[in-house]
Amino acid sequence: MSTTRLSRTEQSEANRAALLDAAFRSFSAEGYAAASLDRIADAAGFSKGAVYSRFESKADLFLAVLERRIDHRATDNAAELEAALATDGDVIAALVTRMATTTAADAEWHLALTEFRVVAARDPELRERYAAIHAGTIGRLASLFDRLVERLPAAPQVSSRSLARVILGLDAGGVLEDAAASEPIPLEDRIHVLRGILGAELSVEATS
User: pTM above the 0.85 mark?
Assistant: First the structure.
């Protein structure tokens, strides 16, 4: 039985993916502060030295996990929006539902992210690195809202970038609120709030 041998580049990429997967699980389960590079390395099947050969620190590894998740989520959000725009459905509801459900599914990761953001806020160098990554998140979400604005009968009073920051703030705050309360914020309420910010009901059927 023949087997296909991976090239050195392919093996390196596979090892990196395995390490990022293990790190995501560890940060989600234990939180940022409690997570250990030793345990992450063990879970991925590598030595701690192998981890440090790729990442300088735990913060460096966390940011790599974050960047990958941002890429995946942006791709999924864009696909969801395009699908909604191609139908007569409510585009706002589709986008908010997508954001809310993916955040809820990875609630433990988002709590770890909140923890990391507090640490980064007190570390100028780390804050600068995180801000650069976060700017990409804002830009991608703003691009989605640009598409939404095209469907509005009148332009909103805020820019797509400001709208993206408001929604990201609500999303992050919602994670903490859901963790503190006995039940999550109803999805219908999230949709209603976003409609209120935009100042219009938005559906392809209503505005086309």
Answer: no
